[in-house]
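Subject: Interface between my chains keeps coming out wrong

I've been trying for a while to get a sensible model of this assembly. When I model each chain on its own everything looks fine, but I need the whole thing in one frame so I can look at the contacts. Pasting all components below, labels as-is. Any help appreciated, I'm running out of ideas.
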Amino acid sequence: VEPEEEGGREEEVAVVRSMESADAEAAGGSEGAPSTEEGSGLPGFHHEVVPTGSASSRVIVHVDLDCFYAQVEMISNLELKGKPLGVQQKYLVVTCNYEARKLGVKKLMSVRDAKEKCPQLVLVNGEDLTRYREMSYKVTELMEEFSPVVERLGFDENFVDITEMVEKRLQQLQSDERSSVTVSGHVYNDQSINLHDISHIRLLVGSQIAAEMREAIYNQLGLTGCAGVASNKLLAKLVSGIFKPNQQTVLLPESCQDLIHSLNHIKKMPGIGYKTTKRLEALGINSVRDLQTFSSKILEKEFGISVAQRIQKLSFGEDNSPVTPSGPPQSFSEEDSFKKCSSEAEAKKKIAELLASLLNRVCQDGRKPHTVRLIIRRYSSEKHYSRESRQCPIPSHVIQKLGTGNYDVMTPMVDILMKLFRNMVNVKMPFHLTLLSVCFCNLKALNTAKKGPIDYYLTPSLSTTKCSGKRSLKMKDTHMED
DNA sequence: TGGGGTTAT
DNA sequence: ATAACCC
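Reply #2:
Try treating it as a single job with all components included. I did that and got this:
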């Protein structure tokens, strides 16, 4: 790929370009004739040929399961269906089904308030995420059958880039059939469809694919959910929430501004979180229009060019971020919160429990984590959030034994974690923790590669300079860090 | 607020 | 290692 050169039409560059193909959006136009394959063997031959992945107009679907944990619980126990159901973690109702919502229960309501509002509320404990996680990945895998480009957002949302699928279906249609394409589900704002507008046609085909996805999720997994179809992730996500349980909505370009201005505050904009909202408010920015019209220069001064440009584009409904395939998880963690943990022995016991669960998960995954991290939250009456962590490499001899249930991997791992613990917490002083979490990350595929003469020296376990055994016990803190 | 996740700095 | 974001 030639650096900087916009003129030369690149051939295979979908992935590379997708990071910055942004500006094509502003350029608008030309989405009429993206063709998929013909040009790919002839670099630079046809000036108007747009490589598949970098077509300026995409079709994105956002799939959002309805009250996911509650649905999983109702599938596990059919007795629960039809009753108001809440899923409890500690003293919170983290989510609930629609029967419960009708009776006034809200997400993240305290159990006390929820029971007060709704004495008939049935509660199930949802602190163990295993079944939710498993079901979540089944949904993602189902979506991947439609298109491999699926990005997870939490356990219950997926983005799918269906641009290619849409193009393929359009090519199957004769030109007279195009004008009989119909929408599946709602059209945002009840906007009228123009079948002479190719962008409308593409989004309608997208709505049909979205309907097929929801059907598949229901038929194969028994789950209902919403979907939104639009030209980028931001808009797809915003529009998926318009008709709420178990319905879908497509956004046509002419209604984009209406959609984003339907957000009554910038904090509703995905990508603008708690901190950014506070800082924007300090600048007098409260509405989406405030952010649209605010001085770019001052915004850049406040947030840096990267954040400033990104959030201001969001305010116009522009989002060039690609749907990034999530693939297998980057990390596994288990956490537990509690009112008080103030002794090392207590901490050690909790850490061992978290670790035991994690080892099972890591074993099932097959890959090997090369880093372990311990996270704590200290009690503080006022201070908002704030966790501290320490991490270190997992010694290679421990990594090797991770999959093999035979050897005791608990003992060396607990020892490592307690070193990390004492590195963070001065156990000779009083302390008060309210959360412990253990995380395995830096996951690598098993060493399935055959060893050539070079690999031999690059494989730590085979190198003679390491692994003296004595060294790992004397490891100083700085040696424990990555 | 829970029990998770991700990426950027 | 932390800070921001997401659910």
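Reply #3:
Confirming on my end. Residues 89-92, 94, 108-110, 126-129, 132-133, 152-155, 306, 326, 329-331, 333-337, 435, 437 of chain A lie near DNA strand B (CB under 10 Å from a C1').
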